[in-house]
């Protein structure tokens, strides 16, 4: 009997071992299949929201939109190293036009793709990653309809923040309202950049030790200085000399408070004999800081800045039609240099572009300071100066009677037109631009925004969402802005996060200027 019990005990133990081994094998196989499979992309159910986007007239306005701290259409963090995708978003376009996409990340390690379908089987176009609004913005002529957008990481380690800015240039504006891209100078700044007339003025400021800021980074090997901000109210060149005892700090310039869109970077200079940095800026608020990447012990650096505005250096003094309206006589004045004229939109990124200005030849160089343009349209002139700080000025030509090439055809028998039906021909008056007559158009719908509560109380470290409604049919962005980010911040979805005890205001604005204000009180 004892032998029988011992046999049964051994058999049961053997069965248990077999079952455990089988289950372990199954788990190993399942785990192996899971990690061996390709990462799953977002399916239809993963579309989390329809994106807002800026409605603009041209690429230059879209850059201004990014520069002036308007919210990104989406902002995501990819935690995985080297690769990874954001959620899939929806883009609804009400009419044909040009879609603009700028996926911005600190080092440009991101790209964006627009798809025709939810399954992502038909990509429409891909947008290259940017580390600045000054990078080339991807554009694509597109039809009205619903599309899908996803950003992806293709390089680098550590979590990566991707801010995707989406813009749309409608083929015909129709009832669409353009997004307001005018700079907002209500942001509190701590630096005033002196206006100067030439590079030597900044050198003199350095010699006189008239610095703008002095910062110290106390952490070893890596760390950041305080962030400083300043306002530029006209286009021109920012000159910078960040001086340090060594070049262990990178001086960085950004166009947004989130410190996402870096438009310039350069190592700190060790001597006043080193070449100063220059960066072309348009009206807006800008931010700079020091980024330490080497060395031990506390490290200080001093920043010297100066700003040379465009206006006094180069301008259009006259733009009038000639006697027979076959062309417009355009005259410029300014500093000595070479003047080039090209047809196209004014865009700050083209100021130093050899491709746009076709500098391989002198076809677009004018003789003297005047030229005659025989085609209506938008133009940009550039003055090339000896100091390399080129100046641009935009202008428009209209009212020119352009020559039409007529292809000979069989001549029909002429028919006398009754005098009562003949259309009179008017001749443009020299020196004036004729304006075509317009017919009355229906009154445009006024879009408004309202909120459920105009006062909110939030505890520190807690969040609440502002509930708002907009007049039906509105196509455009809602801009949300806090009057004091130290008290409370707000994201693009209207979620307010309390930071510390105090009061502030959250302003919600539409692209047509309509706005509403919510009073925020933060309590402990």
Structure description:
The protein has helices at 2-36, 59-67, 199-207, 354-357, and strands at 47-50, 54-55, 74-78, 84-85, 88-93, 97-104, 110-115, 123-127, 138-142, 145-153, 160-170, 213-217, 223-224, 228-232, 236-244, 249-254, 262-267, 277-281, 284-292, 299-309, 314-321, 328-334, 338-343, 370-373, 377-384, 391-397, 449-451, 455-459, 463-465, 468-470, 478-482, 488-490, 495-498, 502-510, 515-523. It has 524 residues and is mainly β. The protein has five domains: 1-37; 44-170, GOLD domain (Jelly Rolls, Sandwich), CATH 2.60.120.680; 199-300, Jelly Rolls (Sandwich), CATH 2.60.120; 314-397, Immunoglobulin-like (Sandwich); 449-523, Immunoglobulin-like (Sandwich), CATH 2.60.40.1080. Strand 16 (249-254) and strand 17 (262-267) form a beta hairpin. The radius of gyration is 31 Å and the shape is globular. It starts with a helix and ends with a strand.
The CATH topology assignment of the largest domain is: Jelly Rolls
Overall morphology: globular
Number of domains: 5
Report the portion of residues in β strands: 35-45%
CATH superfamily of the largest domain: GOLD domain
Helix content: 10-25%
Rg of Cα set:
31 Å
So how many helices? 4
What is the end-to-end distance? 76 Å
The CATH class label of the largest domain is: Mainly Beta
Instruction: Tell me the number of strands.
Output: 35
Task: Specify the structural class.
Answer: mainly beta
Oligomer: single chain
User: Overall mean pLDDT score?
Assistant: 82
Largest sheet: 6 strands, mixed
CATH architecture annotation name of the largest domain: Sandwich
Poorly predicted spans: 18-45, 417-442
């Amino acid at each position: 009997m004892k032998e029988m019990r011992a046999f049964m005990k051994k058999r049961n133990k053997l069965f248990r071992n077999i079952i455990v081994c089988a289950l372990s094998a199954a788990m190993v196989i399942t785990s192996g299949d899971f990690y061996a499979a390709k990462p799953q992309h977002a399916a239809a159910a993963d579309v989390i929201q329809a994106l807002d986007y800026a409605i603009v007239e041209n690429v230059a306005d879209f850059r201004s939109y990014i520069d002036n701290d308007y919210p990104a259409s989406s902002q995501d963090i990819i935690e995985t190293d080297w690769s990874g995708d954001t959620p899939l978003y929806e883009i609804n376009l009400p009419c044909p036009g040009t879609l603009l996409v700028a996926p911005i990340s600190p080092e440009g390690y991101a790209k964006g793709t627009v798809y025709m379908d939810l399954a992502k089987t038909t990509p429409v176009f891909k947008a290259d990653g940017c580390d600045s609004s000054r990078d080339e913005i991807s554009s694509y002529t597109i039809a009205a309809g619903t599309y899908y957008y996803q950003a992806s990481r293709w390089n680098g380690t550590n979590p990566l923040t991707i801010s995707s800015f989406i813009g749309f240039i409608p083929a015909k504006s129709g009832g669409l309202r353009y997004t307001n891209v005018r700079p907002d100078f209500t942001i509190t700044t701590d630096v005033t950049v002196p206006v100067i007339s030439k590079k030597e003025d900044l050198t003199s400021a350095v010699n006189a030790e008239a610095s703008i800021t002095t910062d110290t980074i106390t952490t070893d090997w890596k760390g950041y200085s305080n962030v400083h901000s300043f306002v530029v109210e006209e286009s021109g060149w920012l000159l910078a000399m960040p001086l340090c005892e060594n070049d262990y700090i990178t001086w960085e310039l950004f166009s947004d408070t989130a410190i996402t869109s870096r438009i310039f970077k350069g190592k700190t200079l060790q001597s006043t004999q080193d070449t100063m940095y220059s960066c072309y800026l348009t009206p807006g608020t800008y931010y700079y800081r020091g980024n330490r990447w080497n060395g031990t012990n506390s490290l200080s650096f001093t920043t010297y800045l100066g700003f040379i505005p465009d206006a006094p250096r180069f301008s259009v003094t006259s733009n009038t039609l000639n006697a027979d309206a076959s062309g417009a006589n355009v005259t410029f004045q300014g500093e000595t240099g070479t003047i080039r004229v090209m047809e196209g939109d004014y865009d700050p990124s083209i100021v130093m572009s050899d491709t746009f200005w076709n500098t391989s030849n002198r076809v677009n160089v004018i003789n003297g300071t005047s030229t005659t343009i025989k085609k209506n349209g938008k133009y940009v002139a550039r003055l090339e100066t000896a100091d390399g700080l080129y100046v641009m000025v935009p202008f428009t030509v209209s009212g020119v009677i352009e020559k039409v090439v007529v292809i000979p055809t069989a001549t029909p028998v002429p028919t006398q037109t009754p005098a009562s039906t003949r259309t009179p021909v008017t001749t443009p008056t020299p020196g004036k631009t004729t304006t075509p007559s317009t017919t009355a158009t229906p009154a445009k719908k006024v879009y408004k925004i309202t909120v459920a509560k105009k006062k909110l109380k939030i505890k520190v470290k807690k969040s609440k969402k502002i509930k708002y409604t907009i007049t039906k049919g509105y196509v455009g962005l809602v801009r949300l802005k806090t009057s004091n980010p130290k008290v409370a911040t707000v994201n693009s979805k209207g979620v307010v996060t309390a930071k510390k005890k105090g009061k502030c205001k959250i302003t919600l604005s539409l692209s047509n200027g309509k706005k509403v204000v919510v009073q925020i009180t933060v309590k402990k």
